[in-house]
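Escalation from tier 1.

The customer reports that the assembly of two entities below gives different structure tokens on two consecutive runs. Tier 1 could not reproduce it. I'm attaching the input and our single run for tier 2 to review.
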Amino acid sequence: MREITYGQAINEAYDEELKRDPAVFIIGEDIGKHWGAAFGEMQGLFDKYGPERIRETPISETAILGGAIGAAVTGMRPVAFMFFADFLGVAMDEILNQLTPMRYMFGGKAKLPVTITCYSGAGVSNAAQHSKSVEGLLMSIPGLKIASPSTPYDAKGLLKSAIRDDNPVIYFTHKLILLSGLKGEVPEEEYTIPLGKADVKREGSDVTVVAISNMVHRALAAADRLQKEKGISLEVIDPRTVVPLDKQTIYDSVKKTGRLVIMDEEPKTGSASAEIAALVAEEAFDLLDAPIKRVCAPNTPVPFSQVLEKFWIPDGEDLIKAINEIM
Amino acid sequence: MAIEKEKLIDMYRLMVRIRTFEERVVKEFAAGNIPGAAHLYAGEEAVATGACANLRPDDYITSTHRGHGHLIAKGGKTDRMMAELYGKKTGYNKGKGGSMHIADMEIGILGANAIVGANIPIAGGAALSARMRGTDQVAICFIGDGATNTGRFHEGVNLAACWDLPVVYVVENNMYAESTSIASACKLVNLSDRASAYGIPGKTVEGNDVLAVYEAVGEAVARARKGQGPTLIECKTYRHRGHFEGDPQTYKTKGEIDSWLKKDPIPRFREQLIEMGVLTEEDADKINQEMNQEIEKAVKFAEESPLPAPEEALENVYA
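Tier 1 run:
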């Protein structure tokens, strides 16, 4: 099968959905002919679809997302490109008070097929305002779906599903995966991946590791090492969407391994890992042979200096340490 | 300006419908029949009426926490509105939204909105959608004076101006954002002056003169429909009640209240129509009676409607 990058996969998903449905358009900053979005994943779309559908805006996050909401409730299917995940804070009212409760508070009458795309994650010394991962911050907001693809295959299939979904979906593009040039197998023929279906990235028998977004790659590298060095077998599960969360795949794995570690690039408190741990403790406690461990970032903002940032981001060493504590 | 007699009478009826609805809400709220909060529109009827008289059923409005008048003027049914205020299953939002969130997509009511200024970008998005779908629909964005001080006013109006979107901002300057006077919150005398910052036309009109509002918004709607972009219309008006029912209104003076009550838009329009020979005293009284009967029926509908089943709280989160 052909291999393409994460960025190319995202580009193809946008392209195919723009072609498929005239109601789809993208609205956001710097998405036009010059940059094709800050990391270039939209390059070529402007030339193909023009300024009406690749709608470049001033720096106006509330107008971008509020505009997407108004367009969605009147029959369009917008993608609001919000740049860095950190900038969601600028338009937090649109997320918290407009987009997500609107259908509910209108008694089910409004349809809000809005996809929000943005760059998440640390690793390129962008400091505290351009590096956050915020899955956990957002997953307590009812009405939202949250996708965090880790591979080119997932990136394409999930983005297509997000755009087609009739609900608000936040889709995180991890900037380190994007910038790494990571390639993966992506079929030529069309496919989608349902939101709410986890993927077992590596089968194993001793410990279940639920890893989110770029943490998947760190967990897979650690799994190789542990297998080689200690003969410990990790099963690495990528939930792909933390909302809806495919609990069953996680429980099935824990049933097999009896051990669970969750790896999440967010400050630990209130992160997605906290919800996953709570669910397993609440609903599947009897399957556990050891305490649940969480490998997360410390409860600090994301630091700038490379040495500080490297220390901050959870890595394979942190994961192996946690596993050693429960083996 | 020649307006058909029937249209003038419709406008009068609409203003009376809004006022009668609001007066009844005062009563039922005080009696404890309406939960939550009520932000009443009484005194500002000429704005919603004059503005919406320029719209088609397929045009859009985005409204505010003080939205009852906008909704009625855009064609909202008073019985389903009252039922929503009562928290009943038959309400516009099945009892899930209440006074501050009433919406009816089928007649272009994209929702009352309880976050001041949030409806500004949403109106722009609806206008953008209309253009992208190749229709000539327009959106009226109703906002208060307070919303013109929010960041979203800047972002939303600027973007709509850049893209020449078919949206009309109708600013109801009722002099107070909650308890804070606009004089202490903005250096401008006329809020329509803000339009020049975005390169769009702005106009201030007497908001208690329904025909002045109708004419100014009519020009703006016509511009928008022709693809000539947004307009900002400031309507100077006054809310007769507090920010919310129960507000002691210590920020208002008696002299101010009295002077504005003399400018009440409804008696004023009634006299005007009688002078013009459009209505007789008897005709006008009859309209008042009809509206009393309609609102009486609306209350009865609300009272007799079932409450939602408690478990309905779990529905409608996702499509």
